[in-house]
Amino acid sequence: MTEEKAKSTKPHEHTRLGEVASTAICGNDILSSVLYVSGIAIGVAGVFAPLILLVIGLVLLLYKGVYREVVESLPVNGGAYNALLNGTSKKVAATAGVLTILSYVATCVISGKTAVEYVHTLIDLPVIPVTIVVLGIFAALVISGVKDSAKVAMGIFFLHLITLVSFVVLGVWYLLHNPTQFQLNWASTQDLMNVQPLGMIIFLGFSASLLGVSGFESSANFVEEQQPGVFKKTLRNMTIGVVLFNPLVALICLGLSTTTQIHQFADFLLADEAKIVGGNIFQYIVVVDAFLVLCGAVLTGFIGVSGLIQRMALDEALPLWFFKVNKKGSYPRIILVFFIFCVSILIMTGGKLSSLGGVYAISFLAVMSMFGLGNVILKVTRPDLKRQYKFPIIFVLLAFLATFLGLIGNIVLDVQNLIYFGIYFLPAIAFVRLYMARDYLIIAMERISKRSPLLNKIIRVIFKDFTKGKYIAFIHRPDRLYSVLKYIDNNETGRNAIIVHCKDTDDEINDAVWKELNEAVPLLPKVGVFQHLKLELQQIDQKFGADAINYASKKFGIPKNRIFIGTIHGHHNFAYEDLGGVRIVV
User: Fold this and answer.
1) In what order do the strands lie in the sheet with 470-474?
2) Which CATH architecture has domain 468-584?
3) How confident is the model at residue 313 (pLDDT cuts 50, 70, 90)?
């Protein structure tokens, strides 16, 4: 990748989304789970399902603090990927990125197909072709611009809220006059306890029901499209929705049908239950709502994956080819490739949700767990990082433990989940890791082709720009020089590093640091350290901050995502978002 191309990849400036629009985009995803999570929870845990779903709401409350601390400190797109990128290595972060992408693939395909299946209960139509059409429509909508797609998301979200409130009110009214079904279900759950220990029932029910909070990670993946201060509000709003609706809907369903019926019709549960509490007309309303909100979840998947992949492409964890922005501020190449990937998986699986479910369960829970782990790593490796909000580490560990146990539980529920996950994950991570190691592959090809001058010349011409990338490392302390260069060597393809030192107010300290750097930098290749790196030492007459970052980026023609800095401390008069997406590496 040339520096000219890199400089052309600046994020497109556009109107940022407010609280309502941002909540709607995330809420359609997370609250669409109401349409199927009750059936899943009741099928495994019987009458304990409402209590389990309430506990999961508390887990989500923990993750609200986990996400808020990290994303408000590092407010750029990427979610778990970004948290780990600034706390560990790019290789570890890329693993989280691939898991998130797979989670979005499964979200879009499952939500799209389930939406069509709901309609199929009323109208006979070809499910797979119509699902492809649905995916295509929402892909086109996102390409048209996130602002326009947000308007659609808001309409869907408010209809869904009205439908859920209506279902709860009608359901409670029905239960007050017909309380016997819940008692019968209690008896059937006692029979289940005679076959399986209560602890195992609760554990497996908890694990299966965690899919009810899928979508919570979406807000972190398009935080750059949100207005300042909106992110924490989206987390709060999503948490309230899950805590209120998931347990209530499960409780109502237990009062309407037997556990066997609920398990049998889990995929379309609310359509059947709506007919009981409100008749045919209300059933039609619920079916229409289900179709729209599940389509809204598809929309969220496209928006979320767009923000994630553009971030990974900027960081060269994926080809920069993806970073092609249109006039609407969206990334058509990302959307089109993602659409093709979704369609291929839909066709390859024949629309069987069991295979996609394995990818969905493990990838989603792994992403949540890795975000919790990323929070802990940032606390350990970046303890002085400037934070707007701090969440106690004991609660972070509890959140991580909850989702990690849920991941194990989903494998226990069906070991096929792990197999299906591996089928998709292994090729994806292999592609990313090979792309990230392309400089080593090029060097190997050059060595192999030495006996053929023509072939060697062709390789050098084709891949001449791959190892010429430049990076800037701001150094304030000479003892951090080795750590920064080691990071570049381990994580980046380019072999050119500009070491920049900023003058401060204390001339005596500046002179001493500058002298040490001038002595250390030329010495490194002489003693055999980082011999393959071309190092250049520069000093700028500015205090470190946003102005210095902007100046260095323009002077050396290097985009800000290739600028590496140390931890931003509390005494700094700027925040991370002021620096334009630089990377914290020491």
Assistant:
1) 534-540, 496-502, 470-474, 563-565, 583-584
2) 3-Layer(aba) Sandwich (3.40)
3) confident
